[in-house]
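Q: I'm building a small set of examples for a reading group on sequence design. Run inverse folding on the following structure and report the sequence directly after it, with nothing in between.
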């Protein structure tokens, strides 16, 4: 009986896929990834973790690392980083609201650093069971960066299954 098999498969997946990570930057690909994660979460009763990386490395050119910055430069960088973080938070709160309206358990995190590395590290720390990621567009908030590269690195190195959304 195929309906019995279907129920067994759903039960098996619902035990496996309890924590879904969605790297999110507000691009159309990450919005599609969230939509897919919400469908899965709704069917499997999973929790969604939204995750944004504020990418600020490019403010410090590699050759500049040895030099101390003036106080005003440091202040400017701090203010800019805070404003980028605030934008990320606003964007994530809208995504959280989408999940809340559907009764899906959701939380969000913002961090700073290398986008792919931070995603992989968070997934490992939180024992994420599935990463749903857009195939392009994950720029890191504040810096346009081609992605294909981030989703490729995450899909090659993650210890859990990856669902690439186009």
């Amino acid at each position: 009986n195929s309906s019995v098999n279907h129920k067994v498969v759903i039960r098996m997946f619902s035990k496996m896929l309890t924590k879904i990570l969605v790297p999110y930057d507000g691009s159309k690909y990450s919005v599609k990834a969230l939509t897919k994660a919400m469908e899965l979460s709704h069917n499997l009763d999973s929790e969604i973790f939204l995750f944004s990386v504020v990418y600020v490395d490019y403010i410090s050119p590699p050759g500049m690392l040895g030099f101390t910055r003036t106080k005003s430069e440091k202040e400017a960088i701090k203010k800019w980083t805070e404003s980028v973080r605030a934008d990320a938070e606003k964007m994530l709160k809208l995504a959280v609201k989408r999940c809340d309206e559907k009764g899906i358990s959701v939380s969000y995190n913002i961090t700073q650093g290398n986008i792919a590395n931070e995603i992989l590290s968070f997934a490992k720390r939180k024992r994420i069971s599935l990463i749903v990621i857009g195939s392009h567009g994950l720029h890191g908030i504040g810096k346009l960066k081609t992605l294909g590269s981030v989703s490729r690195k995450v899909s090659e190195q993650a210890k859990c299954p990856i669902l690439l959304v186009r």
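The longest strand covers residues 47-54.
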